[in-house]
Amino acid sequence: MYLLTIGLNHKTAPVEVREKLNIPRERVGEALARLRAEVAVREAALLSTCNRSEMHLVIDDWEDALRGATAFLERFHGCVRSEFEKYLYHHVDRSCVGHLFRVASGIDSMIVGESQILSQVKAAFDVARAEQSARLVLDELFRRALRVGKRSRTETDISAGALSVGSAAVELAKTIFGDLDGRAVMLLGAGEMGELTARHLLDNGVTRFLVANRSLDRATELARAFGGEPVRYDTYSEHLKDVDILISSTSAPHFVVTRDAVALALRKRRDAPLFFIDIAVPRDVEPAVNRLENAFVYDIDDIQAVVAGNRAERDSEVSRVETIVEREVNDFMRWFQGLAVRPVIASLTSRAQQIRDTEVEQALRRMPDLSQKQQEIIRALGKGIAQKILHAPIVHLRQSSESQDGYVEVETVRRLFNLEVTREEENAHRGG
Amino acid sequence: MHTVADRLYALFMSGALVGYLVVALIYIAEIGFRRNSLIVLRQALLGVVVLLHFMAMLLFSTTTGGPLFTGIDGAALLFAWILALGLLLFEKRLSLGALGAFVVFVIFMVTLYAYGCPRAASNRFPGLESLWLKSHVPILLLGFVCFTLSACAAIMYLLKEHSLKHKRFTAMSRRLPSLPTSDAIVYYLSAAGLSLLTIGIMSGMIGQHSLEAAYNPLHDGKVIFSLILWCLYLGYFLSRRLLGWRGRRGNLVNVFNFFIMLLTFFTQHGLPESLQNKM
Fold first, then answer.
1. Which of these ranges, A179-188, A232-241, B136-145, B269-278, has the smallest mean pLDDT?
2. pTM (global) more than 0.90
3. Among A94, A279, A330, B214, which residue's CB has the most CB atoms within a 10 Å radius?
């Protein structure tokens, strides 16, 4: 029994190939059913996102499964194998486990540490369970993958820090104000970037939105779109006292927001903090404003520096996530290799029990005069001898299942004791 | 010659001091490594250390044969213990992990001071059989605990504000609470501390007066120090309410007041009796 992952992602395939092999969410169930009907797999799960399409399989012969899965992709997506085959990667056993754990933790994503992938892995797992194609092995594998994803995000800073100007503005605003619920924002100048930043803030709980623009019509239009209030451009400073965040993106060639205007607004606000996001070039907010107590000014370079710092910090966290992944892979592999040993131990125990019963009963028939108590002693003797002989090989088998080459030991024991493990027995012990 | 109680006291105090140090180190480690196991370990350890500290206080009280707070060492012990208990009970509820790092440092320093304080030099207060005076010291200590926590939150505010102004973000600055959160903690704890200080001063004056009819509070060093402190915190409170002094200015004032509070605490408890009553 092997674990196999076949797929492609943003690192191996261009977008035109990825979109061909993408499976829409509503068709994943159907794809799973067809895959199990057409290819010899014990268990299967499909993970399909805009950046990756992967099959996670439990199979008996990985070369056959690899061929079968490639043919399935060709048939299911109605495309020619040569169009995608060279972009495919595959991982077997340990490498497969490590790959899924890295995917779930976000370190294999295009944006390192992004959190959406974890919900996509969970969705893939849910569909596979609903289709009853994730049983013992994939059930355990995906549960552990989700745990790795959560651990990575809570125990490291892999998903900390925003990576776009809009989300960095929200992050900074939250750093200053904590909760954004009930906060007011003013957009000064109706540029595209400013509008995008305002949308981010409004999506994060800002409740009041004012727009000031040279063209009042444009301000009114934008205010209507966001459910806000238009403000005359030349009166914006009168409203400064009522807002907590000012996004400035005018095309004015000079400073629009002056130190004096802000100092006056702060006094009227009784020194409540005021956050300025100046994304205009040339800058709109006079740098001296940042020297005022309770005024925090971030221009576009500052925000981009925050984004770059966050990106660098996420990159530096990858090694810590790898440590978590490595430990979890070891744990999983111990569990997985233990599955291979279970049917062999059961077969060995059953063989010993059979021999013991035959020999003991034969001996008892030759001694008909023995009392009931004496017969019990002979039976206990047989049981004790068998148990003591088997103890060392069973312990050794269990220990060997934790090592990389455990299967060699398993095969040796099988040959030594001439054990035949039927598929039914194996399934019974592996829950297949 | 050391008695068994003395030896046990030394043992529990050493255990508590090492424990506080380890708790402080775990807090620092949490800034870099967020692990649930670290948080659980820290909370469990703090619980054990608070218990050790309590046992040490009981032994201290047994060996001195009177209430804990009749000398500077006992008062410092009780003060540090209330602070540690407050941290244990409220830190998790308020989710202010970073605050703990500051508070444990203060607890460690005060406990170390109490332990290192020579017993012979410690000053035992007379007249504590009066109910007014018995309640006076614990109320004041609770007030000082509020001021200490408030100063820790003010330091957090100043660190956060500095990092935001200078656009330099570190793992530690990220873990600090937002500015309004710290500011609100500073304000409410200072208000609570001021109320307790007011009650404490009044109960002290009434108690002293009941012992000594000719008592003049303006000739009492302890009262003068406490009144100066009361004026400083009232000043902070009024400037914040009336002038809107929030942010850096208000928090700097709060940290300054805290140092005056420490000075008040250590000087008035350490003052020779002649100076305390006849300053």
1. B269-278
2. no
3. A279
Beta bridge partners of A47: A54
Shared-domain flag, residues B174 and B225: yes
Contact (CB<8Å) A290/B36: no
Name which of A104-118, A218-232, B59-73 the model is least confident about. B59-73
Query: Measuring CA to CA, which residue among A272, A182, A270, A176 is closest to residue B179?
Result: A176
B184 and B77 share one domain: no
- Residues of chain A with Cβ-Cβ distance to B246 below 8 Å are 270-272, 294
Min mean pLDDT across A77-91, A256-270, A416-430, B206-220 is at: A416-430
B150 and B206 housed in the same domain = yes
Task: Provide the domain count of chain B.
Answer: 2
Note the pLDDT tens digit of each residue in B137-180.
788 888 988 998 899 889 989 999 999 999 888 777 777 888 88
Query: Do B64 and B86 belong together in one domain?
Result: yes
Same domain flag for B198 and B266: yes
How far is B69 from B54, CA to CA, in rounded Å? 14
Per-residue confidence band for B277, with pLDDT thresholds at 50, 70 and 90: very low
Cβ proximity of B265 and B79 under 8 Å: yes
> Is residue B113 located within the same domain as residue B192?
no
Q: Which domain holds residue B222?
A: 125-279
* Residue of B35, B167, B247 lying closest to A294 (CB–CB): B247
Phi and psi, residue B275, nearest 5°: -80, -35
CATH number at residue B26: 1.20.120
Element (H, E) at A54: strand A52-59
Q: Residue A89 carries which side chain, given as an amino acid letter?
A: Y
CB proximity list for B168: less than 8 A, separation 6 or greater: none
**Of A155, A270, A298, which has the smallest distance from its Cβ to B34's Cβ?**
A155
Under the banding of pLDDT at 50, 70 and 90, the label for residue B271 is very low
Residues of B in contact with A180 (CB under 8 A): none
Chain A residues in contact with B36 (beta carbon < 8 A): 154-155
Residue of B nearest to A151 (CA): B35
Which among B30, B156, B164 is the top mutation candidate for probing chain A, defined by the most A β-carbons within 10 Å of its own β-carbon? Answer: B164
Q: In chain A, what are the domains?
A: 2-156 (3.30.460.30), 165-303 (3.40.50.720), 332-430 (no CATH)
Q: Are B39 and B144 in a shared domain?
A: no
Q: Are residues B109 and B214 in the same domain?
A: no
Query: Cβ separation of B244 and A157 shorter than 8 Å?
Result: no
Q: DSSP code of A257? A: B
Q: Partners of A229 in the beta sheet?
A: A210
The complex scores an ipTM of: 0.76
Token pair, residue B263, equals 């000075």
